[in-house]
Structure formats: structure tokens, C-alpha cells
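User: I'm putting together a small comparison set for a docking exercise, and I want a reference complex before I start. The sequence is below, and the ligand is beta-L-fructofuranose. Could you produce the 3D structure with the ligand included, as C-alpha cells?
Assistant: Of course. I'll restate your input first, then give the C-alpha cells for the complex.
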Amino acid sequence: MASILAYDLGASSGRALLGRLTDRKIVTEELHRFPNDPVQAGGRLHWDILRLLHEMKQALLKAKHQGVALKSLAIDSWAVDFGLLGKNGELLGNPYHYRDSHTDGMMERLFADMPESYIFERTGIQFLPFNTIYQLAAMKRAGSPLLREADRFLMIPDLLRYFLTGEKLNEFSNATTTQLFNPSKGNWDADLLAQIGIAPGLFGRVVQPGTRVGQLLPSVASELGTGSIPVIAVAEHDTGSAVAAVPATERSFAYLSCGTWSLMGTEVERPVMNELALKLNFTNEGGVEGTYRLLKNIMGLWILQETKREWEREGTSYSFPELIALAERAPAFASWFDPDDQRFLHPGEMRERISQYCRETGQKPPEQPGAVVRCILESLALKYRYVLELTERLSGNRFNGLHMVGGGIQNTLLCQWAANAIGKPVWAGPAEGSAIGNLAVQWIAQGEFANIREARAVIRESFPVTIYEPTEREAWEEAYGRFRAIAGLN
Ligand code: LFR
């Protein structure tokens, strides 16, 4: 039976999923799961990129030991981050984590030379302080020796794919997230690169999702004792792969990719690069088959993950199900904060920041763990309502429900509260959205599916969707009004 392999690397863990097509149904098997622990070194936060490569190789070994012959493999991961190669093809330094503080204030500094509209009309990308453009500008400003030596720029999946294949190529969906790619020109934006003083020669050819981009290097195949395996570039931005897996029947639908981040928006045929999109700070990230993701980043479960880590550091370990059960029993609608306040971006003391936010807005800070978790989850659900309304306003579409995909849907309380907050049903599934979207695009490249529409139909038939109908409408409606006032969202 022919299998294919999807590597999906998230900010807190990575996984390798095997996929097979049996009677027009997708069957997946988790081959390998591993932590992705960033490392603080020399005052900087880095990704442990070689450990990730090591874990990816372990998955190939497991496949070999199970006697699985792989027809292809592909990688997707978080966006914006990158590695630089020297002229000899070696990786220079360890890639920075987008939550490192070296970009603090960089975005505002760049606005002095080029206004936001100048950047937005060239890229259509939302302003996030960690976008690649600000990371490179920060390195330039700091006189980074890496930039002086760099010969090629590769994003995280480009880089891992390069380690496996030796091919130096940039993939489209991820390239758009740099805020250096011009969708109208279909290429890197020379003006923006000139403005930040980065040589255009660093940037390679951009390939579309679904392109076969090489095969395992003989050195890798012989190290692992595997045969040669074709490697495909899918939507290598994990959010692009997650949206590819949304089991929607309608052409126009609203989605929430729910993991460390909550990414909410809709799929569009062309980037929406008007003044309203700029004002609302929406993004147009490149997707499969020439589509774009008109969406907005919401800080997401990161705040809860970080709070859980904080309790662990203090010596109390809670599982997520335990925390959710505590939240359910805590008093409702006690306090809220805007999850997208920038104070929540960097790792650290989330409870203190939430308390500070509550005090600033005249609310009593949550104290018990259940109250803290409730405050986080209610705030997220209410923010979803706000961003869904903005998505409708910007796209001119009304949505009759919300598709939720990604690991975050295991948090059933959040799914129910999202439905309550938006006053519409939530359709949750599949949980492994990114990996399944990754598999789907590999099958499109192999001619198993004609296009993404057909792939979505098969995904719909293969994975269950849980429906959450809204409840407690009046209470949530009233809460939404108060939340907006507290968060200053007009
Ligand atoms: C989600 C994601 C988001 C991106 C953020 C940082 O995993 O890829 O789409 O904004 O991570 O790269």
C-alpha cells in the first residue's frame, strides 16, 4: 500500500503523519511525535533546528522499520522564521525564534522611512512585529555578521527540505509571510529589500505548493538505509496547509485554525489590499491553487500554554483537561483582556500580565487557576466574535458558521464558547488540519485528487466533524458588549 508522509512542525511539538488512500478515504497514522523546545542561549531565543532534523530522520527510520515504502514526503511549519546559508552551503548560526525580543520596536522604526501603506500595498501582509522583514532589519541594524556572510535565505521548511534534498528553493505560501513578497509581481519586492539594505540575491526562486522539488540526498538515504524518496513542496506555511484541510462545501467560508495561534479569516481568490484591510490589519497570505488567506492572527492558546508552563516552573503540574475542568467550574464572565495586547507576545509571566491588564481596566484580577483559565478562554472566544465580524465586513460575506481545525479543537470548552460568542454553529475538525492539508497537496501533486475542492470533499468523508450549537445567547451577547468596551475595540 503506497503511503506518503507529512511532517508538521508546530511551535510546541512536531509530528510525522503517514497517509494512505483507501476506497477514496484518507487514513492517517501518527508515526512520530516529538517536542519542539526553543532554546535560550546568549540572551537570544533560538529554534533547535538540528534536533528537528534529527527527529524527522527518526520518523524515516520508523517508516523503514515498519516496512512502509514512501511515495513522497513534505514539510510544513510555522511561518516568518529562517536560516541563512553561507557560500559553501552551510547553515550560518541557529535560526532565531520569532518571539525573540530583537525585533522589539523595529517595525515602528521602519515606519519612519516607509509608511505602513507603502509596505502594505507591496505585500498585502498584516503588521506583526516579528515578520521576517523586521527580523532582517533588526539583524542589519545590529551589524549581524551572519548577514555579511549570507548567500541564501531559506525559511524553516525550505531549510529542512534543503537538508534532505540539497535543493535551495523558497516556497510560495511561506514566502508571502515575510512581508517582502509582492503578490502583484509574483516575486520578492526589490524596493522593500533595498529599503532595509538586504541583497536581493539572497532570495531564491519561489515554487508553488504542489511542486516536486527533489528527492532524498544519497547521503541521507544511505545514512538511514532508506531508498530515494521524492520530496514535494506543499503549502509549507502550516496555516496554509490547515486551511487546505478545511472540510468546507461552500466556496466562501470562515475558518479558525486553532493551535498555539488562532488564525481566523476566509479564503479569497485575490488579495484584498484596500485601505480597510490595512486599517483592520488583515493579511493576505498565499495559499494553494493561487488562493489567499484573508485573515488575522489572534494570540491563541499560547497564553494558556505559557500559563501552564509557569505553574510547572512553580512546581504544580496540571494537564490541559484538568485546567479545562477547573475553568468550567469557575464563575462566568468575571474578567477579560484583549489577547492581542502586545504584552502577551513574549514568553514569561502571563498571570502577572493578565492581572496588570485587569487592574488597568478596573477589573478584579482572576486568582484561582480555574478563574485564570476561564478568563483566558472567554477572552479568546469573545475576540473570535470580534474578528469574525471584521472578516465579514472586509470580505463582504456573511458566514453561517465557523470551521475550526487544529489541535486546539480538543479543547471542547473553547469550541463551545466560540459558538456561544459568535452566536453561530462551530464545525470542529479535523484536529490534525495542517498535516492533513499537507498530505492532500501531495496527493494533488501525484494526480490522486484533481484539485483542492476534490481533496476537501474526501477530507469531509474521512474525518468526523463535531458540531457545537450556540447556547446561552443573551448572556454572551451582553458579555460581548462589555468585552469590547474593556478591550477598547470599536
Ligand atoms: C501558526 C503560524 C502563524 C504565524 C505564526 C508565526 O503556526 O504559522 O500563521 O503567524 O505561526 O510564524
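Residues 440 and 455 are 6 Å apart (CA to CA). The mean pLDDT is 98.
User: Thanks, that's exactly what I needed.
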